[in-house]
What does this fold into?
Amino acid sequence: MSATVQTLEAMERPPVSMGSRLEGELLEVSMGPQHPSTHGVFRMNVALDGEIVRKLKPVFGYLHRNHEKIGENTSYLGSMPYTDRLDYFCSMTNNWAYALSVEKLAGIQVPERAEYLRIILAELTRLQNHASLLGFLLNDMGAWGTPLMYAFREREKILDLFESLSGSRMMCDYMRFGGCRVDASDDWLVGAKKIVDRFPKFLDEFEELILGNEIVIGRTQNVGKVSAELAINAGVTGPMLRACGVNYDLRKVDGYGYYPHFKFRIPLGEHGDTYDRLMMRALEMRESVSILQQAFAQIQPGPVLNPKVKIRAFRPPIGEAYGRIEGPKGELGFYLISDGGPNPYRYRVRPPSFINLTILEDMCLGHTVADVMVILGSVDIVMGEVDR
Amino acid sequence: MIGSGILKGMAVTARNFVGSYFEKDRLITVQYPEERNPLPENYRNFPFLIYDGDDPHAGLRCVACKICEKECPPQCIYIVKSDDKKPDYMGKPQLYPKVFDIDISVCMSCQICVEVCPFEAIKMDKEFELSKRERFNHLLQRKEELSKSNDYYHKICPTDAAEVDAKLAEAAAKKKPAPAPSAPTPVSAAVS
Ligand code: SF4
Ligand code: SF4
It folds into this structure.
């Protein structure tokens, strides 16, 4: 942390609560981008009254790579590997969201096996994202290393699955318009099923490790509360919205892919505090395991790629499309306008973690600096996606 | 009781610590570089060019059609066509690349060049220990470094290589009974 030279514009002092201690001057501090717990290169300017946050301003853009403009200058297929680099924890779901919007734009059908594979991969992604998020959150609370390493041990198994299927652990680049690039062998499915069957054991252990822990409860309950109204108005989606008790999950609302063929429940929180957000991830992992088990039972052999889709010189008809999916972090959408050419005329990403981050100030006001780190951790951001 | 949650958590860590001596599932660390996990067959790193037979020049499958250069998303391939022609695997005179460079400091291993190439001429390599002391020249791979034999491809990806060989043999067999130039194989039709 270092004192900044910049000033927050219009930094009027908010009223200090009654019975306050010595009324000091507000100290302006720049946290990040090199602060160890601001995930990635996130920076915020905070105005502190002692330990209490009185004002907070996020500063974005350190990882800006011009993703959208690059997307307008490469072919439709050429953007697919770039989407891996948005949220590099969840490249499979990014691929899916992008493929879905192009499929909408060009009216492409996806074979059944590919839909099942997509669901399997998306839910595996959700498992590893949520597991590592919980690990990171504990890291931010001071449980250095141990929970994170347990989570990473599980994540590593899932990444090995991704590697043996797509060729790369994180930059999978696996989905294509009209299906998936390569088929999964039976061995792969058996191996994946084995890992998924073991996952609840890890979850039991992990929940025992953290969820009953008094320190975790003390640090998270009633910290960073969000009302359902604010969350809806700010466009917050994903586990953060559901932690406020709003039943909104695109897998149910849109029913994209083959999700309507699956039976699963949507966990809902009640208080919208950090503890609920944490629990939401733990519960969602259980549901993902059940979705995966159904998918392994139902998947049938068949083609995985629609043979009608051209790889070279792919030109969708003139029009626009918005494809969205329920990513592990929230609603991930791609908006495309086609003018009939080989490149999109407009390519826009709706990144969930960027929009979830907009209510950071509302969550943090009145809490201490240490709580800010926990709240930020519970939002689940990946800067590759926030800054694009 | 306050503190029971913490004690339970401690029991979990203890179980993991002791378990790591007995259960393979809990101790997954691999002591790289002494120990290595086998790479999966689909693993991909950077592209390379395939040649048939022993001579990297005569057997090079690439015909410098520049499709991969055009489709590569970060534009890291650079090709210059040759002035003369040489026979390809079917005996048809074709151009070949005079210059074929891939800047692997830019390449993002996306495999799109492999997917778009109509001649099965470019494939993904599995070599990953590629750190170099020099930044500019050494990370730019020239045609000579990129060319690797089909045997090498068979060694790293046996299944895929066998599939590709079968496909090429089929195309060549189709070509032979009808040598008329007006009956192009599906492969060359995609380029023209
Ligand atoms: S792998 Fe992708 S980035 Fe690398 S040369 Fe091929 S198309 Fe270009
Ligand atoms: S697409 Fe294939 S044949 Fe054409 S230039 Fe590239 S490597 Fe050579």
Remarks:
- The pocket of iron/sulfur cluster (ligand 1) is lined by residues B 47, 72-74, 76-77, 102, 107-113 (CB under 6 Å).
